[in-house]
Amino acid sequence: MLHRIHGLGIWSPAHVLDLPFNPNSRTRDRRFAAILRLAGVTIVNVHLAHGQALLRRQLRHVAAHLTGAAVIIGDMNVVGPVRLPSFPDVGPRGTTHFAKGILPFRLDRCLARGLMSTGSAILDRGRSDHWPILVELDGPNRHG
To answer: 104 — phi, psi (to 5°)?
Structure first.
């Protein structure tokens, strides 16, 4: 997808949403969200920018394109709480990445609207520099 050797992947037909970017940044990296609709739930896989202001703008952009029960999951690069209205953080709490192999961060998150988490875990890292997360969701619930 998009001539990259790394990034998001979904083995199903998905929609790609362009995310806001900073044209004045040194890297000018474009970011995208992969959107999959499955059993009445929209699942969005993201790898957001590194700048805190920009990545929060990207999250608001994704949320603005979603209706109904939805999940936003992936490498959010967020430091601190997310605070995206109507999307509580339902992912596991714990370190999912060590910056420069030293500094622990919880960068990988799962936000869900209209669904309840029935369990979550941080999985073995494998060959990635991040530990993947697993989130079990039930719903849609009537309170989202």
So the answer is: -75, 140
